[in-house]
Structure formats: structure tokens, C-alpha cells
Amino acid sequence: MTLTERLREKISRAFYNHGLLCASYPIPIILFTGLCILACCYPLLKLPLPGTGPVEFTTPVKDYLPPPVDFDRKQGVTTEQPEWYVGAPVAYIQQIFVKSSVSPWHKNLLAVDVFRSPLSRAFQLVEEIQNHMLRDSSGTRALEEVCLQVTDLLPSLKKLRNVLPEHGCLLLSPGNFWQNDRERFHADPDIIATIHQHEPKTLQTSATLKDLLFGVPGKYSGVSLYTRKRMVSYTITLVFQRYHAKFLGSLRARLMLLYPSPNCSLRAENLVHVHFKEEIGIAELIPLVTTYIILFAYIYFSTRKIDMVKSKWGLALAAVVTVLSSLLMSVGLCTLFGLTPTLNGGEIFPYLVVVIGLENVLVLTKSVVSTPVDLEVKLRIAQGLSSESWSIMKNMATELGIVLIGYFTLVPAIQEFCLFAVVGLVSDFFLQMLFFTTVLSIDIRRMELADLNKRLPPEACVPPAKPVGWAARHERHLAVRPSMPHTITLQPSSFRNLRLPKRLRVVYFLARTRLAQRLIMAGTVVWISILVYTDPAGLRTYLAAQVTEQSPLGEEGLAPMPVPSNVLPASHPDPAFSIFPPDNPKPAENQTSPGEPPGPMGPAENIHDSPVPEVTWGPEDEELWRKLSFRHWPTLFSYYNITLAKRYISLLPVIPVTLRLNPREALEGRHPQDGRSAWPPLRPGPAHSGLWEPNPKGAGGAQTHGDVTLYKVALLGLAAGIVLVLLLLCLYRVLCPRNYGQLGGPGRRKRGELPCDDYGYAPPETEIVPLVLRGHLMDIECLASDGMLLVSCCLAGHVCVWDAQTGDCLTRIPRPGRQRQDSGVGSVFEAQESWERLSDGGMGLEESGDSPLLQHRPRGPLPPSLFGDQPDLTCLIDTNFSAQPRLQPSEPAKPEPRHRVGCGRAQDSPGYDFSLLVQRVYQEERLAPLHSPAVRPPSPGSVLLPAPEEGGSPSEKGSPSLAWAPSADGSIWSLELQGNLIVVGRSSGRLEVWDAIEGVLRCSSEEGSSGITALVFLDKRIVAARLNGSLDFFSLETHTALSPLQFRGTPGRSSATTSPVYSSNDAVICRMTHTVPCAHQKPITALKAAAGRLVTGSQDHTLRVFRLEDSCCLFTLQGHSGAITTVYIDQTMVLASGGQDGAICLWDVLTGSRVSHMFAHRGDVTSLTCTTSCVISSGLDDLISIWDRSTGIKLYSIQQDLGCGASLGVISDNLLVTGGQGCVSFWDINYGDLLQTVYLGKNSEAQPARQILVLDNAAIVCNFGSELSLVYVPSVLEKLD
Amino acid sequence: MVEGKTESPVPKKCGPYISSVTSRSVNLMIRGVVLFLIGVFLALVLNLLQIQRNVTLFPPDVIASIFSSAWWVPPCCGTASAVIGLLYPCIDRHLGEPHKFKREWSSVMRCVAVFVGINHASAKVDFDNNIQLSLTLAALSIGLWWTFDRSRSGFGLGVGIAFLATLVTQLLVYNGVYQYTSPDFLYVRSWLPCIFFAGGITMGNIGRQLALYECKVIAEKSHQE
Fold first, then answer.
1. Is A347 exposed, middle or buried (0-12, 13-18, 19+ CB in 10 A)?
2. Does the keyword Transmembrane helix apply (chain A) (predicted)?
3. Concatenated DSSP letters for A1138-1163?
4. Secondary structure of chain A: what % helix, strand, coil (to 5)?
5. In Å, how far is A74's CA from the nearest CA of chain B?
6. Which phi and psi angles does A354 have, rounded to 5°?
7. Contacts of B114 in chain A (CB under 8 A)
8. Is the ipTM of this complex over 0.85?
9. Cβ contacts (< 8 Å) between A286 and chain B: which residues?
């Protein structure tokens, strides 16, 4: 034993034990795993929340220096510094916050006066700032040297060229609206219009031009006609390239000296650095979305392969959870051990998922599922695990190897990725072993429980049951009613899972899952949450406020502190203040003391009692920029093609400026048009409340302009939403007309209702009406065909021979009990007799159950013309097989149904014509065989019979059950047809050879006494398998040479045939050549022969292969864990077998080895057939599964109607036909597409097609109760597009 | 008897639908179109990925730049991918060794994702020098082949495609039709062959998976005849 083998065994054993453990204690293990996941994910809480919102960091102004650029930041103690706080910021922003008011207010003043003159002061201020020079020992320094010099605006912003500065300092003030030209401002008649000319019409979250220039949110600016507070505030924004403390200090001191703010409590201590995350533009979004789409496709295609489990979705979810949580664990663990993720999580996530993969999970599932079902769950899990253990370990080692190679590329990003991947792989393995295996065991256990609950009774399994006496009789007569023994709960055909053309699948998938609606809903939720999170007044700001409150530099110390105006702010840090610019001529003149009444006011009305609007400076003014949109600064810089992504800016403490204007100044600044404007001078209200009276025109005077917009938008949005919903509703109706709410209804599919699949796709339905072969009295149980002829045998023991081309009934072989082999007439009478008995039984049931048929009861006297029916039929049948080979030449399919009348059936009766039967009963009783010429009876509904006689007739008949009692010869259990010979195997063990054309017994053999369960008739050999497990080989010998029988079919066709056809005058002798007395321990259930081999399958779980010539047993094949139910062998020596254990085995007949073993069905495999590339199996679970023949992989499965599970036939290598409730469906084997559905019979109560037999001319015969239907396939497929 | 019957003049089992699906030329065309579309899409997305490296925060005309720079690049990529995707199964058939390794759509999706990832890495990850970048990408491409293909013919074809495509690109650049923003090796990017190789493997994988459908049909048809 080599090392690998030993290793392999050890691994396998370990996995086995592990599987046992997992399946034994599922709940504790899952809990343990959950705890592990949570523990590993705990470090993730420390990571910042994802989002595009900016992040802030505050440093004191004192001793501020731009952070160094170097990277050796790590050994520093500054752990509080965020990572981005490296290097100089993009810019320093100095806001000069101007608050101004006209006071005292005068009643003659207009609304425009509130802001006109305050705004005009902006020009003065800007001038002052621009001319500011710092003179110190190192020389002079002008603004141009320190400010941020901007170049051109972006070419797309041509219309803003006049407003925003270009080629110079970036200095923004409201004056920019008028190109910083005071004259222009004074000439402007309508300030508001000028300000709002660039405002976008819609609601917009990003910064507008007005916001940019005013530097305060529009609400706070006060430049509006309807403000309550007559105070105007704006900022002058100055952007510096470098931090020059002295210059800034001198500017601050100068301005505060010029325009003192008396009660200013701003401390101006802190510098706030704002770091902006990367904005996701469309260029980045598209590849990102693509990778995610690929990821989802991958997950979809992977989880689609999960099969044979209780809850597919549950397991798929578990698989995805496994991968995701392993990734989270990996990130968490990496964070725990000190690695800080630098990669963009959203970008690398799909790749990580793909690298880790779902393969192992799927392999695990498949392996567990394919263990034998009859084992205990524990053992199944353990076996499944251990059988895949080696490959799982190998895969994992390979992946780890590949990833480790990636680690040695020495590229930091790739190394980080590989680190995540390695840890992810390991944690994924851990989760697979503990979490997924346990979930799988729970699922498998649930499936077993469900199986136990809905296990079908075993009778329902064997396709056509062996003679079951009364039960069969019931079945036949109840066939008109929906309730049949094993169709109690009808499964509508709409639950077929099939595969459609892709385009339709997409459409129906959309319609079925209502994907569009859900996407819109999800999108709305996400959008709203994003809005809530990133809105300036939203969650993010709230969070930020929380954070700042917690910080020691928070606002709790910011009590309003009166500061004398002419004294420096106590906290001013700037030492440069002492070197006050000496060249300033103004300070003395403009200095106004705080308490001083505002100068010599012009009009005497200044004593008016309207209160002076207080210009106060609160702590909220210090950080007014927080109220701006968080895109304010990025927008501003983006105009000059400067990106703030992944960079930061520093905001300097604001410089407060207070402007007090007296009314005279306000009046001076007035524009001539202002007086004539629409706004009349304000009349103070009678109450003199001092409040700003609402303007007569402003209906909602209290509301600000923005609020109105908001409401408007909300209203519009609501309306649009309603319209959208209505539109979707209409679309939904159009796309998906199916009614989802209605479930099943009466549980029965009506005729007009198409079978459709999950997607609502209904394949084309044909107009073809099949050829219905009627003549059997009871359910047909055996069918055999050689292409030319068709032999059927019903429960009553009658054998009918049909021409497979035309559907003519050629011969009828009656029950052997009362054989009248003289002529066909006799058999017809025989048929009549049994018909009577049958109708007796039928009547009894009808009276109890079927009320609609009661109205057919004859009431009146019998019209004599009715008696003509009988002799007509007799001669019809008489001539049918003796004189003329075919009554009518084969004709093309007519649109109306062609009912080939079998022996003794009225030609015009479309369905079960019970009244006709009643007439015959009547007729028999009278013993009046009036051979009048053939006259058709009138329509059955009008036929009337005397009631008393009719009522008495059933009881007077001789023992009606006689027909069902097993005769001495036994019932027919098996049937084979070749050439013109029918071989019949009976339950009594008797083997009979009949002539198919003439209906005579050619020879018989009574060698064995055990019932013949299966027959093979090949060339001249007959092999009979018996109930006791023995196998008899017969050979047929004729005394004269074989000659093709000219009787059959067209001459051309029969000349082409090679099979022996025995002429009627030859003597045929059936001689037993070999016998294998004890081929099997238990009854032989399946028997097939091909390519010189004979295969038997038995209830003793084994198969045996015999050579056909000498009956030598070549192999005994063991591998099933249940009785063999079906066997398939073809010329290519491929042998397939299915058993009661639900497994399918493929064998090599040459070597006797098992090629593959598939766990196929829950319940017995009922039938099995192969094409060149596929194995098609059907099971007791009413599923038809199609398997790839070479790999044993399941391609897809088709859900059948209940009770039709075994009915399938292969027409060609790519055409499959299956039976349903009153219909047959054609499938494309390769694609699994439902091609067409053909309804058989036009009566609405459809019976399930229980057997399908494919003839050579591509017609199929299905077994519908007592009828046979012939369908020609080419005509079916021609109608396809 | 059975064999004798099949030659009867009755039209055979195949209706027009089946025959249209099984018709080889139609199938070939469908596959070609699908591959072409995939190629165009991938070219657009990957081009965007490369552009992204140089864009500013607010690129005003990203969409325009996709189409403006060289409109003929995506169609060329599409055509090339169609050819490659059809060539791979064809060569498989001629060599007589059908590709059996991991023939599933999930595996194909994985392959595409890894391919996009390689492109992503080449566009986004900062490498010290170009040799390192090229070596890494080469290793990744070989890994892609090993993980998803593992056939000698696939490798050979991939190398051939990479060589040819690089040659063509080189010619185009020499003639001034096309230009790279930052060439580092003979006027082109040195990682180009690796990307071409990985792309060839990926498209071949897709093409083979698409051809799986056709293979079945053809095999059955030939069996019938």
C-alpha cells in the first residue's frame, strides 16, 4: 500500500466519522458553527461603514502643520489619525460668514430692502479681501500668493463662465452673480431672478450654483421675499492652496476689526479635514455590474444542479450562505490579526466568491444524494462524505497551491487578495464540513419523512396490473368518472418542468417571478435607504453628530460667551495678530460699539417698535457648512477638473462678519424699479406683532420656496408612481394572463385547457384526431407489435389483431374457455356474449353513479329498425378478415375522427354508447335475431326501450362474473408477436402459438405449470420466463419452407421484411430445446433479448445474462438493492436495468461489469429505454428522467400526470413521446422542449395513457383503458413552425 | 424488417422544426452570432475598465469616449471571438478528442469571471514595473488554462491566437491606426499577449459549451443516416 493510498484511506475514514457526527447532532453543530461565524465576523464591526459619504477629522488650529507625506506613519503614536490624513490637503477653505440685517426696521421699507443693501456690501468685502496684504519681516504677501489659482472651467460649463472665477484666485461670493461689478448690481432690477437663473428646475441633491456662491444652504440665506427673519446671511468662500498661518490670522483680525461681531461666541479652534470617498461613476459602475452579473450567473448555474433533495432552494441558500460567511470570516480574521483591508471590498468580492467557488458543496450534495436510499440518514451522509473526501481534499490543496503562488507575485494588492482567498478557502472548508453537511443531513431526513408520508400503495406501481378481477372492472367503468383508483389526486399537467426556447423562458421567467416588480421594489427600498443615509439632513449627519458629541472637542463647552467687540477673541490662537497691517485706514471709522444705536438714522420712524432682528452667533454657525450638501465641495472643485476622490480638504474656522445697516442705507441702495414692483410696501399689521406680515400674494407665506418645491415633487412623484403601478399592472395582465390565485379548481383539466409548464408556456396543440381502435371490452393489458400488426389483449382474455397501418381489426381470438374456432362469426357471437355481461356490470354501476347516462335509458317502445344493427356487424366482421384484407384502403387522416370499428362495435358511436348495449340486451332476451338489411340506428339519445324489460335484464342474465373468473387455461400474462405468429404466455404455464391472421391455434406447449411472466420471441426462438424463476427455451419448426405471406400489407412492404412469416398451411411445431430450471430464486420480472444475448431480471435483486443459442449463463450481475423491475438491452450490447430501489445500473454485457449506477427515482423504476446518447427512465414517482448515457449525469426530468408515469416511447433518437391525461406529448429529447401535445378522443373525460408503444412507421399506440389510439407522428410534427 | 421500413418514402421523423434546429449551418450561424455579441460586450466592458484608470472624478463623456476612440475595436473583438469560439470545437472534432473537462455552464461562468478579473487586475492593480505585471498576468493566464481547459489543443490554439493578435496589433500601431496611451514595449503594452491568451481560452470555453448542443444533434443525425 503506497503512501497515497494510506492517506486516502485515512482521509476517507475521517470523513466517514465526521459525517456520522454531523448527522447525529445537527442542532448543536449548527449552533456551534453560527457562533464561530459570529465570533469571526466580530472584528468587522470596527471597519467603517461602507458608503460614499465624506469622513471628517478635526485637529486644533493651534500649531497646525500639514501632515507629512511620508509613509512611516505606522510607528507614530497617532493612532487616532485616519489613514487618509497624509500629505497636504487639496485646498484650505476659508469661509467668511456674513450676517447682516437692516435695523431698525422701518415700515416704509420694501421686502427687497431686506437683502439688496446687505448684498451690495459683499462687493466691498470682496474688495477688501482681495486687497489684503500681509507685511511682516519676510516681506509682503498678497492673496494671490497663497490662494488656489484656478484655470479654465470645464468646457461643458460654458454658461457658467461669467459667474465662476477663471484664471485667478478661487474666491466665491454672491457678488459673482454680477461679475463682482457693483454697478451691474445696482442696475439689476430683479435680484431674485438673477440669483435663480441657474437654478435647476428639478429637485437636486447636489449643490446648485446659488449654494456655491452663497456658501450657505438656500434656506438660510434669507434672500427671499417671504422670510420672517429680516436677516441675510451669506459667505465669501476663499480657497487657499497653502496654509499660511500669518496671512490667515491677519485677514481674520482685519475683518473682525472692520465688521465686529459683538456677541460672537465662535471659538474658531478647530480645523476640520473632510475626506471624500471615491465617487462611483458610470465608468466604474459598468464593469462592476458586469462582474456581479457574471457572479449571479455562476451561482445560478451552480445551484441549478442541486437535485433530488427536499428543498432545492433551501440547499442553494445554504450553499450561498456558506460561501458568503466564509468570506466574511476571512475578512474578519484578517482584520483581527492586524491586516487592514485596503482593497475595495465591492470590487474584489465577486472574484473572491468565484475563486472559492460552490463546487465542493455541489459535489458533496451529489455524492450524498446518490447513496442508496434505503440506508439510514446518518450512514448516507457518512458514505457520501467519505466517497468524495479524496477529491475534496485534492481540490482544496490545488486551490491553495494556486493561491499561494499568487502570494509570491509580491504585488501588494494581489498579495492581499490571495491572503483573503486563502483564509476564505480554509474557512469555507470549515463551514462546508460543519454547516453545510449538517444542513444537508437535516434536508435528507426531511425528505425521508415526506417520502414515508406520501408513499403510494404498491398496486399503483405495476403499469398494467395483472388480472385483478373486480378492481379492474371497477376501473373500467369508473373511467368515465374522474375518480380512478390511483388518480385520486390529479396533478394538473401544468406542473411539468420542461425546457423551452430560451427567449420564451426569459419572458415567462420574468412574468412568473414578477421580477420587474420585485426589482423596482427593491430598487426603491435601496434608493430610499441611500437617500436616508446620505441625505444632508439624514442618518449620516445624525451619525456624524453623534460622533462629534462623543468627541472631547464637542459642543458642550460652547456656551455663548460675550466677547467685547473691539477685543480679540480670547481664544484666538494667532500670534501674527500683533503685526496688524498698519496701512489700514479704516478701523477707526467703521468701528461701532455693540450697544450703540445704529447711527444717525434718516427717517424718524426708527423709533418704531418693530424689534431689531438680532444678529446672533451661536454654535450652530460655526459649522454651517455641514448643512450644505455633501457634494458641495466636490462639485465646486469638479468645475475646475479637480477631483476630491480619495483626497481631503481642510476647512478653516469661519470668520464671522456682522453688518448692520440702517434704513437709510437700505433706501439708498434701492433700485428705481423696486418701488414699482409687485410688492407693495409693507403695512404693519394691526396687532403690531412685529412679525413679518405675510405678503398678500404669498399664499403660503410661512413656507419657504424650497418647501413648496418639495411638496410639488412629492405630489408628482406620487402621481408618477401610481401611473407606473397601473402600467405595470396592465403589462402584467398582458404578459401573464394566467390566474395565479385559482388553484386547481375541480382538480381536473378540461379539454380546452392546454397543458403548460411553470412558465405558462403552452406548446402548440394539434387538431389531429387519432385513429381510435375499439373492440376490447375491458382494459388492455398486453400489447405487442412488429410494425405491421398489432396485438392486444384485454383483461377479459380476448386477443385482437389489428393492422397497424389502417387500424382495421383483422382477427379476434376469443377466450379459450369457450372456443369456437370454426369461423369468425362464432367469435363475433362470442364477443357479443361477453359484451352483454360487460354491459350488465356497467349498468349496475351506472345506476349508482353516473347520472348523465340515466337519461339514455330507453322509455318507450323499441323501434323495429334498431334490430338491423346486429347482422350488419356480423357480416362486416365476417368479411373483414376472410374475404377482404382491408375494408377500406388506407386513407389519409380525415379531420373528423375515424373510428375503426372493431369486432362488434357500432360504427357511429363516438364513445360509450350504453343505450346500444341496452338494445342488444333487449335483443338477446327476445331472441329475435332479425336479419334485416343494415339500417343505421338513429342517434342514441332518441333510442327508447321499455323500462321494465330493461330493468329486469341484468338480473336475469347468467352469472355475469363468469367472464372474469380465471379459466382453466389461465389468463394471458404475456404476449409476443412476430411475423404472423402470436405467442401467448398464460398464467397456467401454457404457451400457445396462434396465427395472427386466421386466429387459429397453431401449436401449444404445456411443459411447465408455472405462469409465464415474460416472453421473448426472436427469429425462431421463444424464451419463456416463469413465475418460479425457471427459463424455458423453445424453438419453432415448420415443415415447409417459409414463404412470405402475400396476404399482409402491401406487397412492396412485405417483401422488404426479413422476419419469418409462416404461411397458414404450414404445420408449426413448438419444441422445447433447453430449460434452465432455477435461473433465479424468485420470479423473473424482466426479460429482454438482443444481440444474441438474453437478459433476465428477477425479484432476487440480480440480473443474468444468457447466450441465446445454447442458453448458457454468462454472467450474474449484482448491484441492485431491490427487485429488478425493468431491463433494456440493444444491439450495441449496452444493458440497463432498473430496480425497486430506484436505481438504474448500466452494464457492459461483454465483461459483465457495472459501468455506472445512478440513483434515479424515489420509488421503483418502472420502465427504461435508451437512445444512442441518453437513457430514459420512468419511475413510480411519475417522473421521466433523461440521463446522459456516457456520464450518467441527469439531463432533466419531466413530471408526468399521476398514473401515467410509465407511459413513454422513443420514436427516434431525438423524439420522445409521453402519455398524459387523455393526451400524449412529444418532446425533443436533446433540449427537453415540449414540442406538441395531442389530445386523443374528443370525449372530455380523458383516461390516462398507461402504455405507449412505438411502431415502425412512427405511429404510436397508446393504451387508453379499453381503447387503442393510433397517432401518426409525422403529421404531428409538420405543424410546428 | 425494421431496417427495411425506414427507407420508405414517408417523410422521416424529423419535422421542419427539428430539421431547422439540427441543420448545421443554422446552428453554426446562431452560435456565431451569440459569440459575436459576447465578444462585443466583453470588449466594451474591458475597454471601459482600461479607460477608467485615467478618468477624473466626473468624467463628462464616458459613454462618448467608449464609442469615439475607436469604434471598430468592439466589432473586431466580436468577430475574433466568434472565430475563436467556432474554431475550438472544430479543432476538437478534427483531432478526434472531444473536450470532456468540466463541461458545465457554471464552469464557463467561472472562467469568464476569472478572465474579467485578470483584466481588472491589469487595469487596477499598481505594479512596480511592467515586467512584474506581465509575468503575473502570464501566470494568471496559464492558471486559467489549467483550471478550465487542460487540453493541449486549447493551449496551442491560445498561444497561436495570442501571437497572431499581438502581431496584428503591432502592425496596426506601426501604421498609426491605433495607439496606446502608455506603451511600454515596442509601442504596445507588454501584457497584451497574456490578455489575448486568456481571452482565447475563455472564448474557446464558451464556444465549446455552445457546441455541446450541436454536437448531440449532429451525432444523432449521423447515427440515423
1. middle
2. yes
3. EETTSEEEEEETTTTEEEEEEE--SS
4. 35, 20, 40
5. 21
6. -65, -40
7. 351, 354-355
8. no
9. 45, 48
SS3 per residue for A629-659: CCCHHHHHHHCCCCCCECCEEEECCCEEEEE
Burial profile B12-42: b = 16 or more Cβ within 10 angstroms, e = fewer: bbbbebbeebbeeeebeeebbeebbebbbeb
The type of residue at B224 is Q
A835-856 per-position pLDDT tens digit: 444 444 434 333 333 344 334 4
The answer to whether A1195 faces chain B, any CB pair under 8 Å, is: no
Of A282, A409, A1215, the CB nearest to B62: A282
Q: How many CA atoms lie within 13 A of A1184 on its CB side?
A: 33
A928, with CB counted inside 10 A (0-12, 13-18, 19+), is exposed
Q: What is the pLDDT of residue A336?
A: 78
Residues of B in contact with A1234 (CB under 8 A): none
Confirm or reject contact between B150 and chain A (CB < 8 A): no
Three cell numbers at A1270? 393510433
Q: Which amino acid is at B51?
A: I
Query: Between B192-224 and B130-148, two packed helices, what is the crossing angle to 10 degrees?
Result: 20
Contacts of B121 in chain A (CB under 8 A): 413-414
Q: What is the pLDDT of residues A321-341, one digit of tens each?
A: 888 888 888 888 887 776 666
Q: In terms of CA atoms, which chain B residue is nearest residue A1189?
A: B216
Contact A22, A437 (CB under 8 A): yes
Residue type for position A1006: E
| Contact assessment for residue A1019 and residue A1060, using Cβ atoms and an 8 Å cutoff | yes
In tens, the pLDDT along B75-103 reads 888 999 999 999 888 888 888 777 777 77
| Backbone conformation region of residue A305, classed left if phi is above 0, alpha if psi is from -120 to 50, else beta | alpha
Q: Does B80 touch chain A (CB under 8 A)?
A: no
B91 touches chain A (CB under 8 A): no
- Reduced to 3 states, what is the DSSP secondary structure of residue A1036? strand
**Residue in A298, A1058, A1277 nearest the CB of B15:** A1277
Among the listed ranges A279-283, A299-303, A336-340, B168-172, which one has the minimum average pLDDT value? A279-283
Q: What is the distance in angstroms between the Cα of A323 and the nearest Cα belonging to chain B?
A: 15
Determine the pLDDT at residue A1197.
77
Q: How would you label A603-624 residue by residue, b for 16+ Cβ within 10 Å and e otherwise? A: eeebebebeebebebeeebbbb
Angle at A191 between CA A187 and CA A197, to 5 degrees: 115
Report chain A's mean pLDDT, rounded to a whole number.
67
Residues of B (48-67) whose Cβ lies below 8 Å from A: 48-49, 51-52, 55-60, 62-63
From edge to edge, which strands make up the β-sheet containing A1068-1076? A1012-1018, A1021-1026, A1031-1038, A1068-1076
**Residues contacting residue A1087 through CB under 8 Å, at least 6 positions apart:** A1013, A1014, A1015, A1016, A1023, A1025, A1094, A1095, A1096, A1097, A1127
For the entire predicted model, the pTM comes to: 0.47
Cα–Cα distance, A30 to A960 (Å, whole number): 66
Grid coordinates belonging to A42: 466580530
Contact A1277/B18, CB-based, under 8 Å? Answer: yes
pLDDT of residue A1065: 58
The answer to whether the CB atoms of B13 and A302 lie below 8 A apart is no
Averaged pLDDT, A731-740: 56
User: Among B18, B52, B128, whose Cβ lies nearest the Cβ of A284?
Assistant: B52
The two most distant CA atoms of chain B are separated, in Å, by: 78
- Residue among A402, A643, A1228 minimizing CB distance to B56: A643
Which three cell numbers, joined as nine digits, stand for A712?
410639488
B108 contacts in chain A (CB < 8 Å): 301
Q: Report how far residue A1166's alpha carbon sits from residue A1174's, in angstroms, rounded to the nearest whole number.
A: 17
